[in-house]
Amino acid sequence: MNYPKPPHLIWRKSSYTGQTGNCVEVASLPSGGRAVRDSKDPDGPMLRFTPDEWQAFINGVKDGEFD
Length: 67
Hints:
The protein has one domain. It has one helix at 51-62; strands at 11-13, 24-28, 34-38, 46-49. Strands 1-2-3-4 form a 4-stranded antiparallel β-sheet. The longest helix has 12 residues, at 51-62. The chain is α+β, with helices and mostly antiparallel strands.
């Protein structure tokens, strides 16, 4: 499904971004969820996550599920 992009999102890059700039950016959504996009294509598609989905991802990162 194609959703319109929310206006005025504040995008953040990881502090681990190297000089190449190849990274993802994350923005908080008004719903409390998060949006994720490719920093090389800021006008391209973005993924949206509910607050619960985002928290599950963060917990997985902290627990080493993606190592």
